[in-house]
Design goal:
The protein is 52% helix and 9% strand. It contains four helices and two strands. Strands 1-2 form a two-stranded parallel ribbon. The radius of gyration is 14 Å and the shape is globular. The protein starts with a helix and ends in a 5-residue tail after the last helix.
Length: 89
């Protein structure tokens, strides 16, 4: 959790980038957390739970581009959302 909070200073109301990033998360349909392989299971669960709590309308999914973990779910989610018109290109 420390790494997430350090790299994403969402409480910084002075920064335009923090504001913009925060708004993107608030309006997201999907929040995909990459590099999940760098966290142990407890850390990964804590980060995804925190994101789900902060952004309850988004689907939060951890994945690893390196190992492929979660990629099939992510692609299925994108394809399903596009088929129903939730996401646009």
């Amino acid at each position: 959790m420390t790494a997430l909070r350090t790299s994403l200073p969402l409480d910084d109301t002075e920064s335009d980038m923090s504001y913009l990033f925060g708004k993107q998360l608030q309006e997201a349909d999907v929040i995909a957390l990459n590099k999940i392989d760098l966290l142990d299971a407890a850390e990964a669960a804590a980060v995804t739970a925190d994101l789900r709590e902060r952004y309850p309308t988004a689907t939060v999914l951890g994945y690893s581009a390196k190992t492929g973990e979660g990629l099939e779910q992510l692609v299925s989610l994108w394809l399903g959302a596009r088929a129903t018109g939730v996401l646009t290109s």
